[in-house]
Specification:
The complex is a heterotrimer of chains A (346), B (436) and C (223). Chain A folds into 2 domains: 221 residues, NADH:ubiquinone oxidoreductase-like, 20kDa subunit (Rossmann fold); 92 residues, Cytochrome-c3 hydrogenase, C-terminal domain (Cytochrome-c3 Hydrogenase, Chain A, domain 2), CATH 4.10.480. Chain A is of the alpha/beta class. Chain C is mostly helical and 223 residues long. Chain C has a single domain, classed as Fumarate Reductase Cytochrome B subunit, CATH 1.20.950. The termini of chain C are far apart. Classes of the chains: A alpha/beta (346), B alpha/beta (436), C mainly alpha (223).
Chain lengths: 346, 436, 223
């Protein structure tokens, strides 16, 4: 029975390192200091989580993000602790052996394993657009999800449909939650999501035995409760009305607000501005690029990503406005003239 | 042609009222009706509302914007899509006889068409024009107030609202020229100027006619009176009856054409100037080729041209000027009386900073002749009084006989001791004293 | 419906519909009146009507201030109305988020103002709007003149100002998107509502004040 603490010991880390990680985790999850002893106890005693990771219409970017999450757990501990029983990109077996391993894991850890789904589903045409070992994606998902203890949709594709779902959506991509309407799905959107967030959500399941608190769209409140705009370090520039107009002008160098360059921070819920990327080192806005709202539904279809949020979607055209004015003018003129005729006729 | 004053209001009258309102809409009227933003600022500009307010009670029905509301409803249901739809669904305007009685009160009793609300309105809405349409519609339906209808009919029948027919006119002129020792030429052919007195002056202020005669004689122009065009007032304008207006103007046109004059001098009478200057050219677009001057305008022009000079200040006490709305605010003769009065008075204090903001006498637009409107006229006078008292003047110089009549009447009714004098008489006095 | 879906609806199809209705409606209402035509006026003008009409259109908003007697009685109307229009128009065009929109539409570089300025404008506009509405509800003259239309318009504009202020001040998390969407939704409603209400007075202003100036020019008076 491997718990997190025993893995730490095996790897030669001190208890101090373990406690630091535990504290960080508790902080991430927004638990109160008084809950800290419970967290430590759970991580000391409870067995490590078993994860079955399915990939459908995806790019494996979420996996990349996940294995690079190093804020909470050291990378060698991470992959040892979170026991990936089945992961197409990372596991060494292939073909028949791989599928057999998955079947065994499902049976062995019935009702306890965590199912992580990366990528959107494609039920269109009986799921021919995405198959593994002769089974359609829908079939694969259904048989795996049946006995899962916790289902996590990782990335915008699995949460909202993502890029496969963008216009014109040739494969009929849909999010996970649409296929599993009877089950609770934890959505961790983002393209990719922050790896530390994924780790924290999995660990919280280990600690509490139940999924974290979710908002109305199935996202963990602790990480998706606030907008980037709310916690953005460039917010004072927004308030002062100072904006960069291009990527290389004087104002951009001064670090002014990127709203005018199409920053979607105001409508995007994510933890980028607080948790940060690469061990909390940076996030897009800090590196000088506007947020383009990857963790919100249909972000890819929300017009040109570098036009300001307040600009009319699809652009405003004088032509259309003039057509409207002309139409109104003509009808007004006709009505006016008719009234005039009527008045003079009488 | 004769203006009626019916007692009973039936379906026929309501229909006639409705049709007239509907027919009177043009771009300008529609713009005014649409533009109202219901701010109610016009109420504060209305002398009747102000007078009520000063007396301590507020009567919101005196608000000018409210006076056009029935017309607005009629406009909406005939000229707008939404209104038409409403009408189709049966939510159209339902006018009752009570509504029309209220309209009579609003249009005839409590509006002198003084135009002050237009100057205050942030949207520039010309409420007098809208009230005129309501008046026209009421007259068309035969619902003119009795007193006004009687005066109007009298002016059509006898030639003057005070019943001055040609023999009376001739005898009055003879009397005036003897009494005041002034030469008043009648029907002198090929004259340049035609002076038309109003019957109010003729009957009630004969000295005013005499003064005008003296001034005209002194200025050395070739002028005359006419027996055909002997009445300048035009009650058709008050009742907004197109036929009466045309008939009264026709007499002036005939008289002026017969004598072959170039200029017509309107007397000290507001709507006489208004009708001859701004209405007549539209009634007779072809034939009306005269230049119309008000007597004050004429005096000012004569002084500037050097034909007349005033060197003596005849008015010693503090004096202020009362502007006639139809000559001043709506006629554009505002600077002239002030420049003349500055020569006449030692102590002239203008009661308003901007001449266009002066308050009406309360008796214009036919309100003076309507007995039922006396209450409102007195209220109007109260607000007028605030201006006199502001500068502390007891002597008020006017250039409209109707204003003097209304102000005098209200002043006496309210037991005040203001003195109202005509500016032309003052000019004549100055000239005479100079000669003597 | 998720907040972002609502947001996309509000700034996408609904805004387009609102703008189309707005342009058609306003043009219709303007030209319907213009094409009723005017009778020809044969009276010789005393001044220059065309010049006066133009002049009045430009300076009329400042003219009420010269009418001292009325100003002293209705200061709330003049001050409140002035502040409200200043604030409302200023906010519409100069708040950064709005300015970018207008910049995109007109192609002109419209400067955005800092929060402190837009806050001042917004608070003065909202304050004066509330004051004017209360005045409207209490003054006997305005009680007589006011219909449902005015209250609805005032409420709508007040709600837009309020949600706008709330959105700029909000620091309490993801509910921001709902506030922003509501702000935009109400603005769309306002755009949609303008052609059907007295709010379209901004087009009639040109007609009505133009006619007034024309008449003043004809009669040779200035005010």
């Amino acid at each position: 029975m491997d718990s997190l603490y025993s893995i730490y010991k095996q790897r030669g880390y001190t208890r101090r390192d373990f406690l630091k990680s535990s504290l960080l985790l508790a902080t991430f999850l927004g638990l109160s200091p008084s809950a800290f002893p419970r967290v430590v106890e759970a991580l000391e005693l409870k067995p490590k989580p078993v994860v079955i990771w399915l990939e459908f219409q995806d790019c494996a970017g979420c996996t990349e993000s996940f294995i690079r999450s190093t804020s909470i757990l050291p990378s060698d501990v991470l992959l040892d602790y979170i026991s990936l029983e089945y992961h197409e990109t990372l596991m060494s077996p292939s073909g028949f052996y791989a599928e057999e391993a998955k079947r065994e894991a499902i049976e062995k850890y019935k009702g306890k394993y965590i199912l992580v789904v990366e990528g959107s589903l494609s039920p269109k045409s009986n799921g021919v657009y995405c198959t593994v070992s002769g089974k359609s994606n829908v079939e694969l998902l259904k048989e795996t999800a049946k006995n899962a203890g916790l289902i996590i949709a990782i990335g915008s594709c699995a949460s909202w449909g993502g890029i496969p779902h963008a216009e014109p959506n040739p494969t009929g991509a849909i999010p996970l939650s649409q296929l599993l309407e009877d089950k609770k799905v934890v959505n961790i959107p983002g393209c990719p999501p922050i790896g530390d967030v994924v780790v924290a959500v999995i660990a919280s399941y280990v600690i509490t035995g139940k999924p974290p608190e979710l908002d109305s769209m199935g996202r963990p409140k602790a990480f998706y409760g606030q907008t980037i705009h709310d916690r953005c370090y460039r917010r004072p520039f927004y308030n002062a009305g100072r904006f960069a107009s291009s990527f290389d002008d004087e104002n951009a160098k001064k670090g002014y607000c990127l709203y005018k360059l199409g920053c979607k921070g105001p409508i995007t819920r994510n933890a980028c501005a607080t948790v940060g990327w690469n061990g909390g080192l940076s996030f897009p806005i800090r590196s000088g690029h506007p947020c383009f709202g990857c963790s919100e539904p249909d972000f890819w279809d929300r017009g040109f990503i570098y036009s300001p949020l307040s600009v009319v979607e699809g652009g405003f055209s004088w032509k259309k406005a003039l057509v409207g004015v002309a139409l109104g003018a003509v009808s007004g003129a006709v009505v006016g003239a008719v009234h005039k005729k009527l008045r003079e006729g009488k | 042609m004769i203006v009626e004053s019916k007692e009973d209001i039936g379906q026929e009258e309501i229909q006639k009222f409705y049709d007239f309102c509907k027919k009177s809409i043009n771009a300008e009227v529609a713009a005014y009706l649409e533009a109202c933003v219901r701010c109610g600022i016009c109420a504060e500009a209305c002398l009747f509302y102000m007078g009520q307010n000063v007396s301590g009670s507020i009567d919101p029905f005196l608000t000018p914007a409210y006076k056009a509301d029935l017309l607005r409803e009629i406009y909406k249901e005939n000229y707008t899509l939404l209104g038409r739809v409403k009408k189709l669904l049966g939510f159209g305007v339902k006018i009752t006889s009570e509504d029309l009685r209220e309209q009579i009160k609003l249009a005839f009793y409590t509006c002198t068409n003084c135009d002050r609300c237009t100057k205050a309105c942030p949207m520039g809405i010309d409420t007098p024009r809208l009230v005129s349409i309501v008046r026209g519609a009421l007259t068309y339906a035969g619902l003119t107030p009795k007193d006004l209808a009687d005066a109007t009919n009298l002016s059509v029948e006898k030639g003057s609202p005070l019943g001055v027919d040609i023999p009376t006119f001739l005898s009055r002129i003879e009397f005036i020229s003897e009494e005041y020792e002034v030469d008043l030429p009648i029907d002198k052919k090929l004259s340049e100027y035609l002076y038309i007195p109003s019957s109010i002056e003729l009957m009630k202020f004969p000295s005013s006619v005499a003064a005008a005669g003296k001034v005209l004689n002194k200025s050395g122009v070739n002028w005359t009176l006419s027996t055909i065009a002997h009445e300048a007032t035009n009650f058709g304008l008050f009742a907004q009856s197109k036929e009466v207006t045309k008939e009264m103007l026709k007499r002036i046109l005939d008289g002026a054409k017969e004598l072959g004059v170039k200029y017509i001098i309107a007397p000290e009478c507001g709507h006489a100037y208004q009708s001859m200057r701004f209405v007549a050219p539209n009634v007779f677009p072809e034939e009306w080729q005269f230049e119309v001057l008000n007597i004050v305008e004429f005096i000012d022009r004569a002084i500037k041209e050097g034909r007349l000079s005033i060197k003596k200040k005849v008015l010693k006490e503090i004096a202020t000027l009362h502007d006639s709305c139809q000559i001043g605010r709506r006629g554009g003769v505002l600077r002239e009386p002030r420049s003349v009065l500055n020569m006449l008075a030692e102590n002239f204090k203008d009661s308003v900073v901007i001449p266009e903001h002066n308050i009406c006498c309360g008796g214009g637009g036919g309100v003076l002749v309507i007995k039922d409107a006396d209450y409102y006229r007195q209220k109007g006078f109260i607000s007028k009084m605030t201006l006199f008292d502001k500068v502390g003047a007891k002597t008020v110089v006017c250039y409209c006989a109707n204003c003097i009549l209304a102000l005098n009447k209200s002043s006496q009714e309210l037991n005040r001791d203001y003195k109202f004098v005509s500016i032309v008489e003052l000019v004549a006095e100055a000239i005479e004293e100079e000669e003597a | 419906m998720s907040d972002v879906a609502f947001y996309d609806f509000v700034r996408g199809p609904f805004l387009k519909l609102a703008l189309f209705v707005f342009f058609i409606g306003i043009a219709y209402r303007f030209f319907r009146v213009v094409f009723l035509g005017l009778p020809k006026d044969y009276a010789k003008p005393k001044g220059n009507p065309y010049y006066m009409a133009l002049k009045k259109i430009v300076i009329k908003p400042t003219m009420g201030w010269t009418f001292n007697e009325i100003f002293s009685r209705r200061a709330i109307n003049f001050m409140g109305g002035f502040l409200f229009h200043l604030g409302f128009l200023g906010l519409t065009f100069l708040v950064p988020a709005h300015a970018f929109l207008w910049q995109e539409i007109t192609g002109l570089p419209i400067p955005g103002v800092p929060n402190i300025v837009s806050d001042l404008l917004a608070y003065s506009a909202l304050g004066s709007l509330i004051a004017l509405t209360v005045h409207r509800a209490l003054n006997p003259v305005l009680k007589l003149l006011t219909g449902k239309d005015e209250y609805l318009a005032n409420f709508l504009i007040g709600a837009i100002l309020f949600t706008g202020i709330l959105a700029t001040k909000w620091a309490g998390g993801g509910f921001y998107v709902w506030i922003l969407s509501t702000h935009m939704f109400l603005a769309d409603l306002l755009i949609l509502y303008i052609p059907f209400s007295r709010l379209s007075h901004f087009v009639y202003y040109f007609l009505s004040v133009g006619f007034m100036g024309w008449n003043a020019g004809k009669r040779g008076v200035s005010f």
